UniProtKB/TrEMBL annotation:
Entry annotated with the keyword Metal-binding: no
GO biological process, one term: fucose metabolic process
EC number(s) on file: 3.2.1.51
Family membership noted in the UniProt record: Belongs to the glycosyl hydrolase 29 family.
Protein name in the entry: alpha-L-fucosidase
The organism of origin for this protein: Cyanoderma ruficeps (rufous-capped babbler)
Renumbered residue ranges of the record's region Disordered: 1-32
Pfam families, A to Z: Alpha_L_fucos, Fucosidase_C
Gene3D superfamilies with a match to the protein in the record: Glycosidases, Golgi alpha-mannosidase II
Domain Alpha-L-fucosidase C-terminal: 445-533
Function (record text): Alpha-L-fucosidase is responsible for hydrolyzing the alpha-1,6-linked fucose joined to the reducing-end N-acetylglucosamine of the carbohydrate moieties of glycoproteins.
Keyword list, A-Z: Glycoprotein, Glycosidase, Hydrolase, Signal
Length: 536
């Protein structure tokens, strides 16, 4: 970490999101509207009386008045015709007649689509893994696979000890009750975290949908368990109570779906599962809930051609209700991860530590061992707020977004440990948010002299932000990267009013005297930001 970061290419990794290592429609609220098209200006007087809607009528000549070309160019009618002629001859405003680009169902075309700017500016989001796996809440959200397919001893023993013989995974469905689920409360917690977007698992690899999908009969939250459209409720609350962008995770494959298993047996030369199940679900959630993030996952080792991923993405970018603002990730089939799509995720908990040439996201978990809620988790399994601030600073300084995961309980609660961590991150961002939101990578990502210092750049303010994770006992912080200028450079501590004193170390580097503050006087407790002007 003490070395200056290099520009590096993302290392391609294939496969679905791996299991953790052992050891405004339909009640969904109103989505953000598309930017209005450039208006057409009418430069001539119109009458709307007898015209059909949307048609303009030029003034008719008065009774007895002359008619014909000569008369048309005189009087009020002439002025109107002249204005119309000028309107047709003069070039319109830039972009007036320019149609939105159309994308072809090929990776070359789809990969050329610019990523909507809001995503890079957001920097921080919250991931929510919630489903039937939240009922056993043991070991991992991969519970069904580990128990039935791999037959791992802890999972088999857990079932033999706590459930009667013959109990199936489907029997957990009615126990996924969500009786304490309060979408407004969740939205308020998400808002307090400082996150700018949220991604909910609409369907994980178990195949259970959190909305009443007509393509998942009797294995969805409306037919079984809560008897509620959980996606619609959270979408509405997030949009009505916060400024967060709402997104949905969707697993392409399902572990034990007979149609998928049949296709896999046929080496994916048949496509029964994607055409009748997976793709219809994707179109359904986009048209019904209008998510601004589609977080795909779980290719089941099938290529993108089996999933028709490029066909879906072409529709999403060209014709869907979220075509102007939607962002997507890179998990659209075997070989696509870290190579194709909107932003790259490359692997779970991906944090390269250096600048990448493509926008990326670090999806990670507060619980070190699981994405879903675990009743068997110990306190040491949860990342501390210091760890989370460190991950956020490292990720953003290297050009990434941080997607921080929580796992609610089967009855719909966000456990207090997750709520505390989210509120702590939000408190930190209230003080240090200028060093995160809307920033760009600086010429150096971390300091070459003092470990634990990460840089970002605020283009609007022209400031370099130095996020340091350890407050020096001496009260003196040495930075090796800034080029300070006497009489021009100013140094501020975020959350502290007075300017700080500093001394330049030749052409490069500076020493900064931090204020002498008691722990109670510190602007925050887990990492601090110096804002530097004129240090390039």
């Amino acid at each position: 970490m003490g070395q200056r970061c290099r520009l590096g290419a993302a290392k391609s990794r294939a496969g679905a999101r791996h299991p953790p290592a052992a050891g405004g429609l339909g009640g969904a609220g109103t989505a953000r509207a598309r930017p209005p098209r450039a208006p057409v200006l009418l430069l001539f007087p119109v009458q709307l009386g007898s015209a059909r809607p949307g048609r303009a009528v030029l003034p008719a000549p008065a009774r007895g008045a002359a008619s014909g070309p000569a008369a048309a160019m005189s009087g009020a009618g002439g002025r109107a015709w002249l204005a119309l002629l000028l309107l047709l001859l003069l070039p319109g405003p830039p972009g007036l007649l320019q149609a939105s680009p159309r994308y072809e169902p090929t990776w070359d075309s789809l990969d050329a689509r610019p990523l909507p700017a809001w995503f890079d500016e957001a920097k921080f989001g919250v991931f929510i893994h919630w489903g039937v796996f939240s009922v056993p809440s043991f070991g991992s959200e991969w519970f069904w696979w580990y128990w039935q397919k791999e037959k791992r001893e802890p999972y088999v023993k857990f079932m033999d000890t706590n459930y009667p013989p013959g109990f199936s995974y489907e029997d957990f469905g009615p126990l996924f009750t969500a009786e304490f689920f309060d979408a407004n409360q969740w939205a308020d917690i998400l808002n307090a975290s400082g996150a700018k977007y949220v991604v909910l698992t609409s369907k994980h690899h178990e195949g259970f949908t959190l909305w009443g999908s007509k393509y998942s009969w009797n294995w969805n939250a409306v037919d079984v368990g809560p008897k509620r459209d959980l996606v619609a409720e959270l979408a509405a609350s997030v949009r009505n109570r916060t400024d967060l962008r709402f997104g949905l995770y969707h697993s392409l494959f399902e572990w034990f779906n007979p149609l998928f298993l049949e296709d896999a047996t046929n080496a994916f030369k048949t496509r029964k599962f994607p055409t009748s199940k997976s793709l219809p679900e994707l179109y359904e959630i986009v048209t019904k809930y209008q998510p601004e993030i589609i977080w795909s996952d779980g290719d089941g080792n099938a290529p993108d051609t089996y999933w028709n991923s490029t066909g879906f993405l072409a529709w999403l970018y060209n014709d869907s209700p979220v075509r102007d603002t939607v962002v997507t990730n890179d998990r659209w089939g075997a070989g696509s991860i870290c190579a194709h799509g909107g932003f790259y995720t490359c692997s779970d908990r991906y944090n390269p530590g250096h600048l990448l040439p493509h926008k990326w996201e670090n999806c990670m978990t507060i619980d070190r061992r699981s994405w879903g809620y675990r009743r068997d988790a110990a306190l040491r399994d949860y990342l501390a707020i210091e760890d989370l601030v460190k991950q956020l600073a490292e990720t953003v300084s290297c050009g990434g977004n941080l997607l921080m995961n929580i796992g609610p309980t089967h009855d719909g609660r966000i456990a207090v440990v997750f709520e505390e961590r989210l509120r702590q991150v939000g408190a930190w961002l209230k003080v240090n948010g200028e060093a995160i939101y809307g920033t760009k990578p600086w010429r150096a990502q971390n300091d070459t002299v003092t470990p634990g210092v990460w840089y970002t750049f605020s283009p609007k303010e022209g400031k370099v932000n130095a996020i340091f994770l350890n407050w020096p006992i001496s009260g003196i912080l040495e930075l090796g990267e800034p080029r300070a200028k006497l009489g021009e450079t100013q140094v501020n501590l975020a959350g502290y009013k007075e300017l700080l004193k500093w001394v330049a170390l030749g052409e490069k580097g500076m020493v900064i005297a931090l204020p002498q503050l008691t722990p109670q006087q510190l602007p925050c407790q887990w990492g601090w930001t110096l804002q530097l002007t004129d240090v390039n």
